[in-house]
Amino acid sequence: MAIRLATAADIIAIHECHDAAILEKASETYNSNIIQGWMSYLNPDKIAKDQEKLSRSDFLCVVYEEKNMIYGFAMVDYAKNYLNAIYVRQGAKTKNLGTKILDYIKLNAQSRGVTTLWFEASVNARDFYVRGGAVSLEETSHTLDTGQTMPCIKMRLDIT
Hints:
The chain has a domain at 3-113: Gcn5-related N-acetyltransferase (GNAT) (Aminopeptidase). Helices cover 33% and strands 33% of the residues. The chain contains five helices and seven strands, in the order E-H-H-H-E-E-E-H-E-H-E-E. It has helices at residues 11-25, 32-38, 44-53, 97-111, 126-131, and strands at residues 3-5, 59-66, 69-77, 82-88, 116-122, 135-143, 149-158. It has a four-stranded antiparallel β-sheet, with helices on both faces. Strand 3 and strand 4 (82-88) form a beta hairpin. The model has no long low-confidence stretch (mean pLDDT 92).
């Protein structure tokens, strides 16, 4: 399979991938309270907001699907040049899936004339993004929908 544009029908599976990826990776860095606050739990409001975003020309959501399961996705808000997320769950047959999704995002950004993407990376994802060419700017925190704050890293990805 290949990376493709997400559709509204993918949103629930995207949220399932999001939560699976957090459970698989985040416990290395974050406590259970942060993890619980970070997960979407198929929140109907979040699902509706993400479905609405898909109709915007300045928003990109891509997925990687194998055998009717989404194993990875990314979201970019080009109105803000902001990389919302790249999440990959375990089990895909494709190696280096996160890197392939990041490369796709870089090519898409370049085709739009975007020179820089900004984002906040989880502490456990920082090294992945640095290997992909991003620069760590500062330690900061991200406020979750629950009001909790989680440590993260403000980053910049120059598109060349």
